[in-house]
Amino acid sequence: MFRFPLLLIIFLVPITGFTAGISWLNVSHTGGVQVRENSSWNSRYFEYAPSAFLEGNYRYIFYCGNNQSGQIKDSIRLNKIGNQFKVTAFYFDKDVINTNGFGWDSKQICDPSVIKGKFRYDNVNYKYAMFYTGSNDPYNNGTHNQIGLAFSNNLENWVKRPNPIIYKNCSGSNCWGVGQPSVTSVDGKGQLLLFMTRGTPYETKMTVTHLDLSNLDTSIKTLKNEWNLTTNGLGLGINGKSYHLAGADLLYDNDSDTFYMVWGSRFNEKMPNWISTELMVSSLKGSSMWSGYGAWTNLGTYQAEQERGRYQSKKAKTFDAGFDKNPYGNLPYKGSPLLMLNYSVSDSVGWPNSLWTYNIRRAFGYIF
Q: Are 11 and 364 in contact (CB under 8 A)?
């Protein structure tokens, strides 16, 4: 497994002046998200790493989950529900992308990030592209990850490219590779900003690249080579915060030219110790993102002990968060006063028992 599930949703206010922080709504207004109709704490199913967007009357959540009870193997699933604050209209939940029997993504597949645009691949025009993490995991330790790409016109049936679009740059049993993609549209067509995590035996960091996927039949155009996502202002390594940035999800607000990021900012040694106990929401001006400089502003945290959800129980871990977006990776509602965040929760009951407690939740906050 690449990491474990966390889905967080927040509504964001367009920023015209100084942004000081985020104020979370009372947890009684949020509650859990029952991604699968038959999901329960003792079902031995898990779900995490969501990528959600709103289009028309529906909310689409792509996430990682197992297909069989007790199976420790990811597939990418799609949950379609009514576009509402509380989940009352459930349409379907289905498996959409699985591992290949052989090849670079034959062992694990996870971390979907879906974007709408205009793409051409293998003489077919497509409306949606999905970036995902895949691995053949030759050492059975979650390494050798790379980023794949798939296309669709209906969000249910996907055509995968046979090879990665982003390759790992290390080798050996300690090479985590590259994965955990997050994508936003630049022009509403084929130009994209792709954010990703790179892990080598020597460092872990997030990077960004500017791609044009308008016509993959001719070429994959790299409009700006990969650069490091700045960590200035995040306070890494200070007051118990994580020492590196990884697995973040990003959202863009066109009106204020601001990027918002949610990331795992604090960890502890309770198993599973590779998932966070705290989430941070941070903002960065667009010019700073493109230049690779500037400093983030930390708006506020969401911690495990705040989470109660539909089951009215505190959870030990709060991790793998992603924003609700529109199909282009932007704010879902123009002028909305809320930021929606999807996140994962887990108990600390050892491994692999904690895996069966992975569940998806929602939270809502006001930016002020």
A: yes
